[in-house]
């Protein structure tokens, strides 16, 4: 496992990136504004994701928030009111740049991503949460689709993400009532993988990241992009796409993981695929 330890400041100060032992801890850093997503965070997150994708010291990305918040969603002043009153093209550019990191880049990021939901998580923060591959929450974190409470619908792409991730009754209940719920409930409805006590959160996320780092990164990348694309395809198109994707993954995999896996299981009998991974050190 990579044991580099380095600290990088992405942009100025609204996003902090700290790479430790392969894990890039990406922290939204406006605690005084509950990490509400403003134009600075949009810009710095795009820069951070660009840098991390190219940085071999980063194997897994964890997104979290400074202080007692994950994120209070889009910034009502700097993301909505001020741009709404300005030039429409500037506003449109901001919304596109936001979609770029919150959805297009994050969902298809070439490395595994985990949301570590430490506290408040509202509105647009659901997009960040759902764009991450996996999520673990503080059981006392507070979640809410609060848009209805202040007179807008969950736009950006939040409603689409919520519709993909939650059951219809549950999604509409929270979209239409804006009722807050805690981390335990978020785990119950499948919005996060687990909810744990606050003092165990970082250790649990680290353990999950370490599990992911033991897997073949090329196959992980193909598996997650395959998942996202087939959700929108017909059955026949999915079968065709997955067959081509599988060939692509084998062709591009420098480890030739499938050959190693078969050899170690069938010939050497040194591991059980059902119980863990093949030996990647060979
Ligand atoms: N946009 C802009 N500013 C925000 C914000 C947001 N989404 N969320 C919090 N802030 C600001 C507050 O205006 C306040 O700024 P100020 O100190 O200059 O007055 C500061 O952050 C602290 O917020 P406050 O409400 O005092 O903190 P709290 O701990 O009592 O409550 C929340 C935290 C998250 C419950 C509350 O701030 C809130 O409801 N935020 C809006 C959540 C929301 O609806 N998000 C959806 C946006 S799409």
Secondary structure elements and pairings:
Layout lengths: L4 E6 L4 E6 L2 E6 L10 H16 L5 E6 L3 E3 L4 H10 L2 H20 L5 E5 L2 E3 L1 H8 L2 E5 L3 E3 L13 H8 L2 H10 L3 E2 H6 L5 E3 L4 H13 L3 H14 L4 H18 L4 H11 L15
Helix pairs in contact: 1-3, 2-3, 3-4, 4-5, 9-10
The chain binds coenzyme A.
Task: Please give a structural write-up.
Helix 2 (76-85) packs across helix 3 (88-107), helix 3 runs parallel beside helix 4 (124-131) and helix 4 (124-131) crosses helix 5. The protein has helices spanning 39-54, 76-85, 88-107, 124-131, 158-165, 168-177, 183-188, 201-213, 217-230, 235-252, 257-267; strands at 5-10, 15-20, 23-28, 60-65, 69-71, 113-117, 120-122, 134-138, 142-144, 181-182, 194-196. The protein is globular and about 65 Å long. It folds into two domains: 15-213, 2-enoyl-CoA Hydratase, Chain A, domain 1 (Alpha-Beta Complex), CATH 3.90.226; 217-275. The model is unreliable at 1-11 (pLDDT under 50). The two termini are 14 Å apart. Helices cover 48% and strands 17% of the residues. It is of the alpha/beta class. The strands form two sheets. It has a seven-stranded mixed β-sheet. The structure holds coenzyme A. Coenzyme A binds at residues 33-34, 36, 72-77, 120, 122-124, 146-147, 150. Coenzyme A (COA) binds at residues 33-34, 36, 72-77, 120, 122-124, 146-147, 150.
């Amino acid at each position: 496992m990579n044991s580099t330890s380095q600290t990088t400041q992405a942009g100025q100060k609204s996003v902090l990136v700290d790479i430790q032992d392969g894990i890039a801890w990406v922290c939204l850093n406006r605690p005084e504004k509950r990490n509400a997503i403003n134009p600075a965070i949009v810009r710095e997150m795009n820069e951070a994701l660009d840098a991390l994708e190219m940085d071999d010291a980063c194997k897994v990305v964890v997104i979290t928030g400074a202080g007692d918040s994950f994120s209070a969603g889009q910034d009502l002043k700097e993301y909505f009111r001020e741009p709404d009153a300005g030039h429409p093209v500037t506003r449109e550019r901001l919304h596109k740049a936001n979609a770029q990191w919150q959805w297009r880049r994050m969902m298809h990021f070439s490395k595994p991503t985990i949301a570590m939901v430490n506290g408040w998580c509202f509105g647009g923060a659901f997009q960040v949460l759902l764009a991450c591959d996996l999520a673990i929450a503080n059981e006392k974190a507070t979640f809410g689709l609060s848009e209805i409470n202040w007179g807008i619908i969950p736009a950006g792409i939040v409603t689409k993400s919520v519709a993909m991730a939650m059951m219809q009754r549950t999604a509409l209940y929270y979209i239409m009532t804006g009722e807050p719920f805690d981390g335990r409930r978020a785990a119950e409805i499948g919005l996060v993988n687990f909810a744990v006590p606050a003092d165990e959160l970082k250790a649990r996320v680290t353990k999950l990241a370490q599990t992911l780092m033991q897997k073949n990164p090329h196959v992980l990348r193909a598996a997650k992009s395959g998942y996202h694309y087939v959700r929108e395809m017909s059955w026949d198109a999915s079968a065709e796409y997955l067959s081509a994707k599988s060939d692509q993954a084998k062709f591009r995999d420098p480890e030739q993981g499938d050959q190693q896996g078969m050899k170690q299981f069938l010939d050497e009998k040194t591991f059980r695929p059902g119980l863990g991974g093949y030996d990647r050190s060979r």
